[in-house]
Amino acid sequence: MSRRTTLALSGAAVAALAVAGASLSWTIAAPRAAAFAERDLARRYGLGLTVAGPATLTLLPAPRLTFSGVRLRRGGHDLVASEGLQVQLGLAGLLAGRAEITGLVLERARIALPEGADRDWAEPAARLAARAAAGRGRHLRRLVLVDATLSLRDPRTGHRETVTGLNLVANWPRPTAGLDLSAAFTWRGVPATLALSGLRPRELAAGAESPVAAALTWTGADTAGRRATVAGSAEIEGSLTWADETPKDGPAKEASATETAKGGPRLSGQARFATAALPATLAWLGIAPGPAALTGPVSLDGRFLARPGGVEWPTIRVRVGDNQLEGAGAASLVRGRLAVTGTLAAEQLDLSGLLTGTGLLTGTGLVPEAGLSPEAAPGGWSRSPLALDGITSGDLDLRLSAASARLGPVEAQDVAAGLLVRDGTLEATLGRATVQGGTVKGRAALASLPAGIDARLQGSADRIDLGGLFADLGWPRWILGRAQGSVALDGAGSSLADLVGRLAGRAAATVEGGEILGVNLADLAQRPETAATALRRGGRTHFERARVSLTVSDGVAEIGQGQLRGAALAASLGGRIFLAERRLGAEARIDPGPDGRAGGSFAIEGPWLRPSLRPLTARTLPPATLPAAASAYAP
């Protein structure tokens, strides 16, 4: 073997040994190594470093120091306590004898924001922003958190919040490049993932716009022991800026509350939000759901502009269940209370699920009364407690329009409506709607009481086809004709049964050109003793005009001006309707005809959808029970 070959082999062996040695971890003096790394942390970020465990140095594949039992401090507070810390160093700086930290890896770190820690984090953040904006010097190219725990205080509620199982990787290869971040964590018992890309810290720190794309997903059971599933996603693609505290046009500029709020991020672009269970998702986020508690799956898609504490949607598409709406909206969050405003339109709209979710329609006959029994709800009205807490914990100002809308079994066209929720009150307005060929308008207002609710109802209807309306409601079609009427009622109670028992107000209705199905009043007046036979045969009573007015007090409606006029018949109605018991106690009188036809009086008693008819004559006759289809005097 030649001397040259021997030297070459020896050199290769030495190089291999050197590489192998550089790849090994060498234990070094921890205090001196910590002081070496701390100089760069203090110079660039104002952070102090203390190390309780041993330290090692590894040169390849990249120089790095590894510590155990690490604390990052500032202002006498521990900002980070980590079981392990890996400090990645720039080779050029290391050869020059100085530390240039290019990356940090924290293992099982506990990152806390104790009381007064805002100012402790403010200085490192300000230094980082200044260096990023200037584009000078080495920057932190990589940050990794492994199984970290983040603890901070929620500024909205003051409660301590903890993020566990945080695994994060952030890469920022060059000052002029974008920052990419991916993270997985658990918050309030719900696993979530976050991905962010395209963010340019240099432009952002300099006050310029930076592109950004982000996606957040979450799925799991909610934390309070409830069985609701928390699942959904949020995606944005747009631009981000960091605004100063003073508006650009100066402090004298007239601006909205959000525009003059403290400086912070301004995010705009295109966004999409979807969740299978909106109430559970809002509760997971610590937001009082308010009226959103009445909805299920929800998705939003459109252009947006977000500022601290609020977001605006100049154009938005909303899907709630099978309903699809378009329009504009805004949302703000003040001390954990969600406020939503919106103007939305739809071709078809089904509000049945929204209203049945309140429980206020249960026991009215408009929705099924599952689980009710005569013992639990005498008269059929629900005795379940009434409360608005679940739907007034947030604010809502919503304007809706629809070419076609459904409320329970009733369908309407050309609908304009509104819903206002604020300060423990709920107000629903119907500006107009076409129902069975007629026009309906109304307003219902509910307000929370210490025990129960206060309710007020006003409404009017014109030219409604009663036969079609009763068919929609599933009620017996005992009267036909075009009706107009008005109602003004108010009451208060702890349950629907209690509220109905305290109702007060007035109501009036007029029916033109109609007929009563199931009984012939003229024949009945002639031969009252044949009432049972007449009822079995059925019959019809045509009339030109029928009118009734009611005065309601303590759940009892006094019948006044109950009149019916036909070409050959006139009749009147008086008595009472007991609303709480759904019972009639009335008297109908058929006037004698001008041709000498006899008249007669009849008592109408019993359940209002199935009353009994009893002639009031000197000779007492057994009562005849009207069939359901012949409930002629049911209001």
List the helices and strands and how they pair.
Blueprint: H1 3-23, E1 26-28, H2 30-45, E2 48-51, E3 55-58, E4 64-74, E5 77-89, H3 91-95, E6 101-112, H4 117-134, E7 142-153, E8 160-171, E9 179-187, E10 190-199, H5 201-205, E11 210-221, E12 229-242, E13 265-275, H6 278-284, E14 298-307, E15 310-320, E16 323-334, E17 337-350, H7 352-356, E18 395-407, E19 410-422, E20 425-435, E21 438-449, E22 452-465, H8 466-473, E23 479-493, H9 496-500, E24 504-517, H10 521-526, H11 531-537, E25 540-553, E26 556-565, E27 570-578, E28 583-590, E29 600-607, E30 612-615, E31 624-625
Parallel strand pairs: 6-7, 17-18
Antiparallel strand pairs: 1-3, 2-4, 3-4, 4-5, 5-6, 7-8, 8-9, 9-10, 10-11, 11-12, 12-13, 13-14, 14-15, 15-16, 16-17, 18-19, 19-20, 20-21, 21-22, 22-23, 23-24, 24-25, 25-26, 26-27, 27-28, 28-29, 29-30, 30-31
Descriptive account of the structure:
It is a single chain. The protein is α+β, with helices and mostly antiparallel strands and 635 residues long. It has two domains: 22-208, no CATH class; 351-630, no CATH class. 16% of the residues lie in helices and 51% in strands. The protein has eleven helices and 31 strands. It has a 31-stranded mixed beta sheet that branches. The radius of gyration is 38 Å and the shape is elongated.
